[in-house]
Amino acid sequence: MLRRRLNRLFGGDEKRVDSRTIYVGNRPCPATETFIPPKFCDNRIVSSKYTIWNFLPKNLFEQFRRIANFYFLIIFLVQVIVDTPTSPVTSGLPLFFVITVTAIKQGYEDWLRHKADSEVNKYPVRVLEDGQPARKDSEKIKVGDIVEVVEDETFPCDLILLQSSRDDDTCFVTTASLDGESNHKTHYTVPDMEKDLQSLSATIECEQPQPDLYKFVGRMHIYKPEHDPAVRSLGPENLLLKGATLKNTKKIYGVAVYTGMETKMALNYQGKSQKRSAVEKSINAFLLVYLCILISKAVVCTTLKYVWQSQDGQDEPWYNQKTEKEKGTILYVKMFTDFLSFMVLFNFIIPVSMYVTVEMQKFLGSFFITWDRDFFDPEIEEGALVNTSDLNEELGQVEYVFTDKTGTLTQNNMEFIECCIDGFQYTAFSSELDSFCVTDGPVSTFQEKAGREKEELFLRALCLCHTVQVKEAGPDELGGDQVDGPASEPLRPAEQRGFIASSPDEVALVKGAMRYGFTFLGLESKTMKIKNWQNDVEEYELLHVLNFDPVRRRMSVIVRSKSGDTLLFCKGADSSIFPRVRPEEVERIRMHVQRSATEGYRTLCVAYKRLSVDEYAAADAGLREARLALQDREEKLMAVYNQVETAMSLIGATAVEDRLQEEAAQTMEALQGAGMKVWVLTGDKMETAKSTCYACRLFRRSTELLELTVRTLESGGRRREEMLHDLLFDFHRKAVQDAPPARAGVNRSWSSANPEYGFIVDGAALALVMNPSPDTNCSRYRSLFLQICQNCTAVLCCRMAPLQKAQIVKMVKNSKGSPITLSIGDGANDVSMILEAHVGIGVKGKEGRQAVRNSDYAIPKLKHLRKLLLAHGHLYYIRIAHLVQYFFYKNLCFILPQFLYQFFCGCSQQPLYDAAYLTMYNICFTSMPILAYSLLEQQIAIEVLLDNATLYRDIAKNAMLRWGPFLYWTVLAVFQGLIFFFGVKYLFSNPALQDNGQVFGNWSYGTIVFTVLVFTVTLKLALDTRHWTWINHFVIWGSLAFYVVFSFFWGGIIWPFLKQQRLYFVFFNMLSSVSAWLVIILLIVLSLLPDILLGVLRKPRGPHTQQVARLLARPSLLQPSSSGACL
Amino acid sequence: MKAGPSRTNRPDNTAFTQQRLPAWQPILSAGIVIPGFTLIGLAFIGVGVALFVTSQKITDLEIDYTGVAATSPCFKCTSFAAENCMCQMEFTLTTLFEGPVFFYYGLTSYYQNFRTYGVSKDGYQLSGDTYYFNNPQDSCAPYQYDSNNNPIVPCGSIANSMFSDTFQLYQVVNGMKKQVPLDGKGIAWWTDYNIKYSNPALVNGSFANAFSGTVKPVNWSKPVYELDPTDQANNGFLNQNFLVWMRQAALPKFQKLYGRIAEGDYAQGLPAGNYTLLINYSYPVISFGGTKKVVLSNVSWMGGKNQFLGIAYLVIGSLCIVMAMVMLIIYAKYKFTDDDEDM
């Protein structure tokens, strides 16, 4: 923010104007008398955060901005400055450790970024200088330079395409790394460009850099010596974006318009915002509570100290005189330093080590996801990927799942399934046969075929009506369609022909035609070649391509056959084709189309039209004119298209299957069983999406569908707004108000007899809800809409723009109770929702890697989501929740005796424990067992978790970290703290604890308390551990042994660096006292009793816990031996 | 499947990475807990009984000699004017006080655990390092140097406030006072006496010379090398009473060992009879509301008399038994129906 503002301040005049002027080739132009080379930023990309010089201060600054680190720094400084009971080392050492480790980690990450940056910045490029390409580093490119790019290279900056090696003045690029679309896009050179770039004298006027990838407005002035300057308008089709890759084109020249950090790619690069998990928020809340406890403890002690000192003779008893310095200090200063000292004494209650342990747990724990073989997909030979380990536990808290359809629920692997020609159905089963055979579908009883002519016409249409290109490559590289992206399926010999197309459907269709015997051979200089059944090559001259666009939802080609016929082939969605063909033909096909659609296939209708010479001439003229129009080109083209594509005759329909992902239905069922609500957000059309939902069992037969789509909105014949109003209220009444109130709705709806609702909404309707026109009183629409959605078992949002997807996620995320949301998707269009949701999951699909890169977790297949959430998420949540509670607990019962001791030492800040124990308690004695627990614990076996999705509900809504459990742990800690302290205190009513009559002092007291403490908290964890691997055994018993060994060691040697040998032989003497042993055992047992008791008496909650017990084939709660005893 | 390097992508199939380490999965079921509680209860009751009986057998006798009340023989010594004040406390034993008898003095409201008090000593000095004789550590302030800027040895508040009352115990036999010998050896921790504290090396064969240039603590009447005029070895930092005092008490009410009665006629204990305790009263406690007492006690394997431990064991032991019973009843009543199908 600040930087942007500064930029605006210092950016100079250049920034303020709306457009920039670029001199092509940085040559002065005749029109402008004075050539002032404009200043633009260079082409250097900087994504790193630090330099060598600013690393230390900047990194330290950033680290200490974290409230916890800052707090520990303050404590440390207080210890250094004020005379405090414990040495600065006790808190300085852990803090130093944490800061160093974090700095090293961040430094390393930044070093990687530096490396990546310099790789990009030093990448060699060729810039035209005096007509000759000169090699340069990429970072040296200036705005206005003419850059040469060859095939398969990425563009080093945003370029205006001036010249292409292709003779049709186009070039192909793929923008996979920008928006994830791996198809080939066609870009055009500036019209009527001269061949000699050296003599080109032109300026480009274009807008200031802005992040929208699909918008660009500019003008090019071309100056020729003898003519008036020509003006060419520039659009996004002329702009080659940095990051895109040149394909299928030998070489292009372009002039740089935006460089470095001003390229659209750089502007689009948004640092992933830090996502914080609900657990972290709980930690912060608990921290606040503990901070309050800490401060109140310090206040209480300070107050008591001064109250106590005001009594006669207690302020300065003769045996403990004050020093001169103490006497000289002002009372209030003394009080303040006393307060600080108490803070320092009790500061261990908020342990720095908790942050370290939590971080370590998250970091190490995330490896279990990457290591999981169940996530390994042999097809792409990859497993799961963890981009953020901060959210592991959030996986166990998901309430809403937003899933993309194409590529996520479905495979995005289009396969030609069947077609229907003239009302007769054909399937693509026996494709090897040369003959075009009829199948045994439901309609096959007719056993009739359409006429041979029709069949041929249909197949020709499939072969001609597309924009597919044949991959021009050697035989080795054949196969593997480009559409399939980097992870192409294994070769299939029958289809060793690579096709490149902007949509996978087209490839499927062309391949389908190929199976039937009509092979598309390629397009060569406007001539399309196809091989027919007779293995003859038919040639057609391609006259026009009427491009596909989502509004028309169809595309056409106009071709001329050898015989001179001019034909128009058109294919498109049924809704857009049917009105344009003769009505009598429709009925025969409509049935097939609908049946195919309900089976979840993507259907297209194919139509054709024979154009007479006059008709063609008119169309040709119209198209040419519209293409050259400078203004409203789109609208004009659309008008001509619509005019041409009329009165066609329907030939047939195709059905392409986008198969469901493996186990998609089971996964969805499991998620719903786990209490999650699944919303499907897709850009696809409603019918297809709906059938996918049925196939995934998101909608069932019993589900009542509520539709809020353009169709229902317009059905009433009234204004959309009114209709929207009515529908919304109607649905709201049905789904929300009429629903039984006591419906533990969210939890048990699937088993109850209540009607289930499915809600369908489309993009247009959503836009109406989200951005209602101002005149209506519809601020309520949003909340109504949200309530309806929340009361439906499944919601389908179709025809969504990427931004709308994010909008929906945001709406749910910010709704009441702020539920945890998860988005899963595979394509670039899902990135926005992946970034928006609490947890973003990328599917390593076929639509590029954009989603994976922006996700928090990436999995190869949708089916893996089940284990990721139900097993990993559940376990991680239990682990971290327990970790957090345990940490607070063990530090409260650590510090409470020290607090209580103040009442018995005149509130003089005398520490109860030795400094070594204070420091080591959190670092060594009690840290490893909980870390091992938080990595390995499986209270419920993974198989059981997977089989019983309902178990997921037990931990929903942050169940283990709410105030209830927190209170339990706190009470337990207080109880134990009291027991530790007072148990030992009563023992010390007679400090002669040895059989030789010798007495124990204060350090023995502290050591006994500490021993009880260490054993109790460790054994408490042992009690909670349900899954004892050898590691758990090792660390739990190991830490206890370590404590004993350390104590022997620490007390067994006179340490020369210590001023006072406080603990010298204290531990030995303690162990030589039978009473000390007995009190230690007594207090440990007493402290653990309530926990054991609760553990036994806690009634199994709900039916599933018993179910689990049974599933685990464990002995029932009462074992035969004891049951026999009581019978 | 393609062979070669791609295979390395596949995660390792080890028990650890797949979270399938063999594990013991205990469940706190009633079948374990009820017998467990019963066993623990029984064991605790057993220990409790032993402790209780032991503690009951220990006799102790407390004699408060603060002298707050005007009737107390030591009242005269509480005024400031009294110097070298001696007072006598009389007591009678009706039965044999079994030996060995331990002689403690006790103080109340005395905060040896004040933080500033506790750090006010110089460990190096006390380990006999003569460098620190002349340069006591700052932590000893305000008992670091005296008003003439001479270093104090041993410096610091703890040493300065060393308990200075002395006691003599007499048995009155036939009207005659017969001194009961108090053995002041072996009352400090062995390690304190032998390792942690040590005296400086002799200078010119004289122990006192080792302390030349230093002064005694302000409140002391004798320098540290003359603490025990009767036993040359019991002087300096190794004076047993000094060592006992230097080990700070944990709580403001404490007692410290003064001596043992284990010699001569009294090896078996103090026989029944009348006794006189002669106190050289010099240690002021009234200014801060404290009291002084003498405790005569014998000890057992568990140390001095302490009812707490025995009672606590008995209570918790019975609690365990009770809980085991309650659990048994609860499970007998409610749980069998649920578990039937499993059995």
TrEMBL record, chain A:
Sequence positions that bind Mg(2+): 404, 406, 826, 830
Limits of the P-type ATPase N-terminal domain: 38-91
Catalytic residues identified in the record: 404 (4-aspartylphosphate intermediate)
Residue intervals of the P-type ATPase A domain: 123-264
GO molecular function: ATP binding; ATP hydrolysis activity; ATPase-coupled intramembrane lipid transporter activity; magnesium ion binding
Gene3D superfamilies xref list: Calcium-transporting ATPase, cytoplasmic domain N (3.40.1110.10), Calcium-transporting ATPase, cytoplasmic transduction domain A (2.70.150.10), HAD superfamily/HAD-like (3.40.50.1000)
Name of this chain's protein: Phospholipid-transporting ATPase
Source organism per UniProt: Electrophorus electricus (Electric eel)
